[in-house]
Amino acid sequence: MITLRKITLENRRAIFNLEVSEEQRRFVASNLSSAASCYVLATNGGQPFPFAIYSDGQPVGFVMLTYGITSYDLPSIAHDSYCILRLMIDKHHQNQGYGREAMKKILEFIRTFPAGPAYYCWISYKVDNLPAKKLYESFGFRNNGEILGDELITVLPL
């Protein structure tokens, strides 16, 4: 069973050591870099929510959610919306359904509106990241026509 857990002193190293495959590294920042981004966002008015993704007591991935992002280029949909800024499943745990189950838990959490009300959740991905596109679309995310850098913006009404 998939659960989202806080990053703690006890689990931080295990989370920082999770990696995607070599060919996927261009799609997502390292978990250590993402944790540092959480600190920067939190100290500059943002509201990050970093979580370890666990399956039956074992860490298998990482997700970083945000609300009120600052210091990043933002799509028009970003104001008062939640963003799934990072999502990764470790290379040893891919293709086992963990990404899909994690996305269910992520959206359940977002729909509790922990940082405030929102009408949308958005996520961006690189055009050639077809597994991400397929996953996001299966949950109802739709391209809103915006591109930031080399990433498409997809939006889900909450």
UniProtKB/TrEMBL annotation:
Keywords: Transferase. GO terms for molecular function: acyltransferase activity, transferring groups other than amino-acyl groups. Residues 2-158 form the N-acetyltransferase domain. SUPFAM superfamilies: Acyl-CoA N-acyltransferases (Nat). It holds the Pfam family Acetyltransf_1. CDD domains: NAT_SF (cd04301). InterPro entries: Acyl_CoA_acyltransferase, GNAT_dom, MshD_Acetyltransferase, Sper_AcTfrase_N. It comes from the Bacteria. The keyword Nucleus does not apply. This is GCN5 family acetyltransferase. The lineage of its organism: Bacteria, Bacillati, Bacillota, Bacilli, Bacillales.
